[in-house]
Amino acid sequence: MNFPQDQIDELKQMFPGVSYATEGGFDYFLLPSVKLPGSCQPGQTEILLCPNVRDGYNSRLYFPNRIQCGKSPNWNGSTFIFDKQWYAFSWRLSQGLRLLQMVVSHLKGLQ
Q1: Which residues, listed in sequence order, are joined to residue 47 by a DSSP beta bridge?
Q2: pLDDT for 8-60, tens place per residue?
Q3: Which of 7, 34, 35, 77 could form a disulfide with 88 if both were Cys (CB 3.0 to 4.6 A apart)?
Q4: Whole domain around residue 103: which residue ranges?
Q5: Mapping DSSP to helix (H, G, I), strand (E, B) and coil, where does residue 84 land?
Q6: Which residues, in sequence order, are CB contacts of 88 under 8 Å at separation 6+?
Q7: pLDDT at 19
Q8: Phi, psi of 23 (to 5 degrees)
Q9: Structural domain count of the chain
Q10: Is the dihedral of CA 6, 95, 64, 78 positive or negative?
Q11: Which helix (H) or strand (E) element contains residue 100?
Q12: DSSP state, 41?
C-alpha cells in the first residue's frame, strides 16, 4: 500500500471500520455503514473505494447495489471484486485528490 498514513488516518476518522485489501493489482478501501446523501435508498450502505486509475477513470467508488436517489446517475460499471458483484456510476474526478476527498467527491454524484 503506497498511500500516506495521514490520508488513511483521515479516512478512518471519518469512516470507522475501514479496511484495506488488493486484488488484481488494484487497491481497495472498504468503508462499512456509510450514510448516503439526501433521499438515497438505502440511506446507508458499505462502499468500496478504488483510488487507482481503472476503466478510464482516475478512481472508482463501488456500491453493493444500484442506489436509488433523487438524481439518477449513469450506472455504467459492474464488476466482481473479492467474489462479490459491485456497481459504479460514471463520475469523473480530478487527479491528485486525497482518499477522503475521493469518497466525498464520488458521493456528490448521488445528490
Answers
A1: 31
A2: 999 999 999 999 999 999 999 999 999 998 889 999 999 999 999 999 999 99
A3: 77
A4: 5-110
A5: strand
A6: 55, 60, 61, 62, 63, 75, 76, 77, 78, 79
A7: 96
A8: -155, 135
A9: 1
A10: negative
A11: helix 99-107
A12: B
